[in-house]
């Protein structure tokens, strides 16, 4: 009897095929969830970046709504008046430099739509091509014009940017500059 029990315990070492299959299925499910999570993180970051642009431009619209023109729009003025306080971007209040979430520079300047200095523009340098499209699509809803690289993808709000035009301008590698022009009034 003792020998039969010893033989049985010796045979029960290791994992069964069913146990190994269950472990492999669990690993597969976790890997699938992980790859989907990366995509969701990227989409969320793009959406957050677009919301930052719109929030900053609306703050500038509020500030300049009753001014004659936007000739004083600069990074220094925007930083000193708190326009970037809630952006989550890196702001240097001494050198007046701003870095967006992808570590490219942000520059604010006066712009012209109909008359000199009746608008302002934001230039975002070094935006990764893979993030460019989602950001441009969201910001284009509020911007007057949108330029990606050297391509004007939205010339006026009445001629909105198309997905194909945005994707072509964003390219397939590297980084691009994005320029948004907003009017003084919303």
List keywords for this structure.
five-stranded antiparallel β-sheet, TcpA-like pilin, alpha+beta, two-stranded antiparallel ribbon, 186 residues
Q: Which sequence of SSEs, written as H and E, runs from N to C?
A: HHHEEEEHEEHE
Count of all domains: 1
What is the end-to-end distance? 90 Å
Radius of gyration: 26 Å
State the secondary-structure class: alpha+beta
Mean pLDDT: 85
- Output the CATH class name: Alpha Beta
Q: What's the number of extended β-strand segments?
A: 7
Uncertain regions spanning at least 5 consecutive residues: 38-42
CATH topology: TcpA-like pilin
Please summarize what this structure is.
This protein is α+β, with helices and mostly antiparallel strands. It is built from five helices and seven strands.
Structure description:
With 186 residues, the chain is of the alpha+beta class. It has a single domain (9-183), classed as TcpA-like pilin (2-Layer Sandwich). The chain has helices at residues 2-11, 17-64, 75-80, 129-140, 163-170; strands spanning 90-92, 97-99, 106-111, 119-128, 145-148, 151-154, 175-183. The strands form two sheets. Strands 3-4-7-5-6 form a five-stranded antiparallel sheet. Strands 1-2 form a two-stranded antiparallel ribbon. α2 packs across α4 and α4 runs antiparallel to α5.
